[in-house]
Design a protein that fits this description.
Elements lengths: L1 H16 L5 E3 L5 E6 L11 E10 L4 E4 L7 E4 L5 H7 L7 E6 L19 E11 L1
Antiparallel strand pairs: 1-2, 2-6, 3-4, 3-5, 3-7, 6-7
Catalytic activity: [protein]-peptidylproline (omega=180) = [protein]-peptidylproline (omega=0)
Protein name: Peptidyl-prolyl cis-trans isomerase
Function: PPIases accelerate the folding of proteins.
Amino acid sequence: MKSVIALLAASAIASTAFAANPTEKLPSGAVVEQLKQGTGAQPSADDTVSVNYRGTLADGTEFDSSSKHGGPATFPLNRVIPCWTEGVQKIKVGGKAKLTCPAATAYGSRGVGAIPPNSDLTFEVELLGVKK
């Protein structure tokens, strides 16, 4: 009996330690999963952000990353795909999130470069800075 109680206690502790990351589904259908909570400023759509990122297709194939371009990317948040404009606003500086972008919130039916038309995309985004 003591071993069953110990096993249940260990299981409860383990399930707490491995609890799922906070996830939010946005009205557009994009999903933001917080991988690391930030403690800094949270951007608005009109801000310029600096990020490290990695983008993959639904099959896991990487199509782009900031490291391929020599380091962090900086851009106005309202000049990127809707999934990013909405999703990055949910991250605080120092945080990292996974954005799951339905095709309609990414590049839609047009596709771009290595991204085929109507592709759902996933990005890991680390927010490094916000400039008002």
